[in-house]
Amino acid sequence: MNFIFLKKYTRPEPLGLLFCLSLWYNLTELGEYYPNEGSSDDLRVFLITIAAILLVILVLLYRLFPLKYYSYVLLYCDDLDPLLVMAVIRTESSFRENAVSPLGAYGLMQVMPQTAEWLNSKFNKNFDYKTVEGNIALGCLYLNYLVEKDGNLEDALIHYNTGPYAQQEIKDDAGRRYVRKVLRNYNFYKFLYRR
To answer: Which of 2, 123, 139, 191 is most exposed, with minimal Cβ within 10 Å?
Structure first.
């Protein structure tokens, strides 16, 4: 599925669930078409069990990687893939609106108050980092700025997490771990919501 499709619809339907339900239904019908053919019952039970397990896994994945606040993300993501922004939110706050870090970062995208003030001043905006919409808007604005400034996503994510002026050891350690987490979450989002 291409990026334009994601911009057009706010909630991509989970085709994986539909596929598993269809598979399960078709496998239950298999027993009616091929009754008592030796091991076909064992195969049918095995395949139904596999389909049920896949369905449970998909349901759990959709719960762990929701599209909460997706309409705000679509509104403010600009050049960013909205699923990447969802992965950042999941990594930063696990969708807790009032999350506060020990250093004072706040909200879904863990925006620092000083960063919010700087972004509002630099881009002539007036977003409140303590609201859901404002936090997402500022987080997206900052991540877009960093991607443009740094020229690549990995460095932008490191700077988003550690700050652009952090010591190199912090960038190499905490920054790289953060990038791995975000990209792992991003891969899950792409798997679940792309066609």
So the answer is: 2
For residue 4, name the pLDDT band (cuts at 50, 70, 90): very low
Report whether pLDDT(181) > 80: yes
- Alpha-carbon distance of 135 to 117, in angstroms, equals 12
**Distance (Å, rounded) from C-alpha 124 to C-alpha 88?**
24
92 is catalytic: yes
How many CB atoms sit inside 10 A of residue 97's CB? 14
The set of residues, in sequence order, having a beta carbon less than 8 Å from that of 57 and lying 6+ positions away, is none
- Per cent of the chain over pLDDT 70 is 79
What is the C-alpha separation between 124 and 127, in angstroms, rounded?
10
Strand partners, 111: 106
Backbone angles phi, psi at 62, to 5 degrees: -65, -30
Instruction: Read off the pLDDT of residues 171-180 as tens digits, 9 standing for 90 and up.
Output: 899 999 999 9
pLDDT at 136: 98
Rounded Cα distance between 14 and 132, Å, is 25
pTM confidence score: 0.79
Q: 139, 130 in Cβ contact below 8 A?
A: no
Among the listed residues 13, 37, 92, 148, the single catalytic one is 92
How remote is the C-alpha of 112 from its chain's centroid?
21
